[in-house]
Amino acid sequence: MSNTARILKIDASARKAGSVTRQLSDELVASLLSANPQAKVLERDVAHGLPVVDEAWIGANFTDPAERTPDQRLKLALSDTLVSELRAADTLVIGVPIYNFGIPASLKAWVDLVARARETFRYTENGPVGLLDGKKAYLVVASGGTEAESAIDFATTYMKHVLGFMGITDVTVVAADQLMLDTGRKDAASHKIHDLTRSAA
């Protein structure tokens, strides 16, 4: 990681206190900073909710940028900001609590606002191509009973796919899964964080 590295940390857990994904994401960012104290961190907490994509948003997004009305530019303003944050980041740390086998609605809203044709991916005659290559992503996953990356985990697999669709293919999963069955998995995830950041340094 260079001295000008930028880390984007995204929290999605509905819980502020006691959230495993928030705790482990904080720990991971702290470890990355210990390896590179000059890195800049931007935190984006989506748990309070983001606007969902609606007809007006879709119309604005598919209008040529040069022809967008002031209202359309305003409609896309938050999405533009989120895309800019994503583009600027060298490293992503995304907290992914598994809710009912999938990701929280707030995190899905973030995905919908940043996965934009011509902005984070483009269509070609050979299929879609991601525009955000060269980034590193960490998915900090927590669940009560769902085994991470199993056939019933539609959260981790979805996030890996959508990041790859936008060109981010270097993705590491740090899982504290099935905590209702084994609370020790949180400590195991913490050890993995330190091992990963030690080797990266």
Tell me about this structure:
The protein contains 7 helices and 7 strands; from the N terminus they run βαβαααβαβββαβα. Helices cover 39% and strands 20% of the residues. It is globular. It has helices at 20-35, 55-61, 70-75, 77-88, 105-114, 156-165, 184-200; strands at 6-11, 40-45, 91-97, 121-124, 127-130, 136-142, 170-176. With 201 residues, the chain is of the alpha/beta class. Strand 4 (121-124) and strand 5 form a beta hairpin. InterPro entries: Flavodoxin_fold, Flavoprotein-like_sf, FMN-dep_NADH:Q_OxRdtase_AzoR1, NADH:quinone_OxRdtase_FMN_depd.
Write the layout of secondary structure elements.
Layout: E1 6-11, H1 20-35, E2 40-45, H2 55-61, H3 70-75, H4 77-88, E3 91-97, H5 105-114, E4 121-124, E5 127-130, E6 136-142, H6 156-165, E7 170-176, H7 184-200
Family: Belongs to the azoreductase type 1 family.
Organism: Roseibium aquae
GO molecular function, one term: oxidoreductase activity, acting on NAD(P)H, quinone or similar compound as acceptor
Q: Specify the CATH class.
A: Alpha Beta
**Mean pLDDT score, rounded?**
95
Quickly give the CATH architecture: 3-Layer(aba) Sandwich
Order of neighbouring strands in the sheet with most strands: 2-1-3-6-7
Distance between termini? 8 Å
Q: Under CATH, the topology is which?
A: Rossmann fold
For the largest beta-sheet, the strand count, sense and barrel status come to: 5 strands, parallel
Structural category: alpha/beta
- Low-confidence stretches are none
Instruction: Give the number of DSSP strands.
Output: 7
Q: Give the topology string: H per helix, E per strand.
A: EHEHHHEHEEEHEH
Spell out the CATH superfamily: Flavodoxin domain
Domain count: the total is 1
Strand content: 15-25%
